[in-house]
Write a structure and sequence with these properties.
Order of helices and strands: EHHEEHEHEHEHHEEHEEHEEH
Distance between the termini: 62 Å
Number of strands: 12
Number of helices: 10
Strand content: 25-35%
Largest sheet: 10 strands, mixed
Shape: globular
Length: about 280
Amino acid sequence: MGAVGISPTGEEFLSREILRHGAYVCVRPRGGAARSARARAAIEELADRFGLANEFTAAGGPPADSIAFLRRQTAVPGAIADEALQRSEAVIHVASKHAEPVAGFCAEARRLLAPHAEVCLLGGVVRPRNYTGAAMEKFAYARAVTQQPGPAMPNAFLIPMSKTAEWWGKDWMERHTYFLPRYDEEGRLVAEGHALVSEAGIPCLLRRTYHALEQPAPAGAYDFLTYFECADADVPVFEKVCAGLRDVKRNPEWKFVREGPTWHGRRVAAWPDALDARG
């Protein structure tokens, strides 16, 4: 018999520990301000001040305190309108085990860029994987590609998203079932679920997800910030995985998902390069 007042499917069984803090600084032109004025902002000096190492040269995983510069390629609108991200010409990613370097960098970057750019901040945290058992850990994560240097995996895709009130109204055990395959009473596969649909991306798509500090997130904020990196040769794999996840017959979870824009960028070595107009 359970303890009085505790539901076996209550949210109190989910870990609230924060493993990492992260943010995307999304930069778009302000009025007629010249690109060169934004490029002169002392963003890399600011990164040095906060002890942030460049992910562009990372191999085998990101630095403990890191920064990355992304140059816009394309942006495709989603169900959630987000002009700030949609129009961003560059995105800066910052991450740390500690909240202070991320918050400090974002505040100072916004101040430095304010005369020449509109700045939108998207932030979140990494938490322990609540729904991942030992077998799924081996299936989905032990085989996953780690972050590689920019030239090896130059493509970056940022896709913020939220889930519907109906999703958050389900208990955590029911939500868990949507990540797994579904079978009928005869044992026939009827829906692959998130895990199988995305399997092709495990060895070639770097995945990173930030969660809102509170879920569901407040109105106007995203529940999740999803991000991917891949080689040029693996962009079709990314597109195929996304198409599969969005197919609600194959992946019923997506009935409850509302995506913001899919922002496609190119990883570059330095802040001025993120503002280069090359495709």
